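From the shared-data thread, chain only:
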Amino acid sequence: MVSQNLPKPWISTPLVESSALSKAAGCRIFLKLENLQPAGSFKSRGIGNLIRTALINHPKGGNEIHFYSSSGGNAGLACVTAAHSLGRPATVVVPLTTKPFMIAKIKTAGASEVIQHGASWAEADKFMREELLAKNPNGVYVPPFDHKDVWDGAATIIEELKEKPDAVVCSVGGGGLLCGLQLGLERRGWEDVSLLALETRGAHSLATSLKERKLVTLPEITSTANSLGAKRVAEKTFELAQRKNVRSVVLSDAEAAMGCWRLADDERLIVEPACGVNVALCYDGRLKKLLPNLTKESKVVVIVCGGSDITLDRLCAFRRQYADVEKGTTNDQGVPSTVSAPNGSSNGETIGNTYGSRPQR
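Structure, as tokens:
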């Protein structure tokens, strides 16, 4: 067995108070910067923990283990990044529809091989399991979200908080992050902390399941927030989301995109729509409508989950496509991104300065 001292393939991330988002939301907004993880997203924690645990528990020390992932997104990138940092090979099988940009990122992170196969994730996953994993006795499958080690890794986000927040905001795809946060809150005795679970319309498998009171599989994913594109959430996610502290929230693609460009203007951070949906909740009174008891001193932690499938060109395209979302709703006076909004007083010109942040309390 490998020593318990095996390095963790993730980092403790900063918790930064945002002056701009706090002003917009009417309470104290703290950004948990998971976009700074080695793989660019919170996936480094959960998938990194799964890989590290597999190596520690392997009876022969893990020197022969080869990791396999069928995700062409952030999960695949996290798998390769973590495995490479711990000196083990990782192969990723992705569908033919995977963007060359993400394939290049996965290869650059140190993948042993990136194989393109099939028209969908299901076909890529089937090929990986039957043609690669089944033929390698030392192969280990790395699931994107439905595994206890993944949840335990995500739970470390809560372990790093020095004070109890009033609410935590996270996005939900398959639900690995939500599971980890909920378990983390439970372990610290913070079960009464509100947990807002954000999805985009067209990828709202959790909201649909909660409404129907049973696990539901969406017929297709129509949202542009492709990192939230799980047609069905994990069974554990559905279970934990039914606790009384969880509030399911569905916003539009336009609102998620707005969250991306306003975060860029307010805090100089570029994230995917899967993360922008969390940030969007802070603007135009959305958060106060959901949690009317919040005061100016209430502390809300927003998980800036990150994501690597974003470029400056894509961000600008979102802003052009969804500019109308701001019409008549940009009421956050004095917030930089209100001034720089497509319909703001600067006529679309971005301001030169962003506001600093108070240190963690």
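DSSP finds 14 helices and ten strands in the chain.
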